[in-house]
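Working notes for the structural subgroup meeting. M.R. asked for a predicted model of this chain before we commit to crystallization trials. I am recording the input and output together here so anyone reviewing the notebook later can reproduce the run.

Input as submitted:
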Amino acid sequence: MGLLDDLENEAQKRKSTDEETAARKSEREEAYRKVLEPTLEKLHAYLAELIAKLKVLQPKIAVSHAIPGYGDVLAHVEHEYELRTDRQPSARTITVNFNCAIASAECPTVQVEGASRVRAISGLFQRHRLGGPIAPRKDASGEVVGATFKAKGRIPLVATFAADAASGQLRLSFTNFDDLGVVVKSLAPDQIAEDLFDEIGRYLMREPTSFMRENLPENYRSQLRERVQQQEVKRRWEVLIAAHQQEDIALLKREYSISGHFARFGDAVGKLRGLIGKSRD
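Returned structure, recorded in token form:
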């Protein structure tokens, strides 16, 4: 095979690749026009109707998030919603914003000991805007070694639904729903089922649903359970070690105080002996 044949074969391969790329791009654009864009149009109407009903009915919707080292933060949905849509020539995004008011009276009051644990929990509280430590205690060097924590404030919840011709998929993003963080799910056009809107509505209202749960292999589930158990054991040891450290510090303080009393007593005895010796002279 000569040089010209090699170049011709390479040109044919490149042409075939370009044609496949163009075909996939055309399929994604068609899926956006025929499936994704109409789906988002209907979803916007569904969400507007859902929000209108929620504002009237004002159902009590509870949200609970676990904070490592602190416990469960309990909150209730405030039925003040913002529904926005951003439409571009080949893309569209729908966003729903609302808040949960933290039920501070229902949240635990946790006394945390140890500088590292105080820093860790304080960092989590600051990151999620749950309030700061109460009555922090510092050591002689000025480092905070103990504090009380009690959650307060509001937790923002954000749901985003987006699609574009470039990806040809529906992307769903939920912030602070199941956990304090973001979870994302992507759906191809052929995965958009008839009950999608109902599943989204139930998820927003925090009703039981498997909508955002992935079907994980059993071996991976076992690994996750083992990891959770290990973290729980680690947390218990950290609490135990911190408690022993505080006991050791208290013991050292007592010993130091006692030794100081004996030292002062010894000084007094020495002075008394010196006075008696002078009086004899």
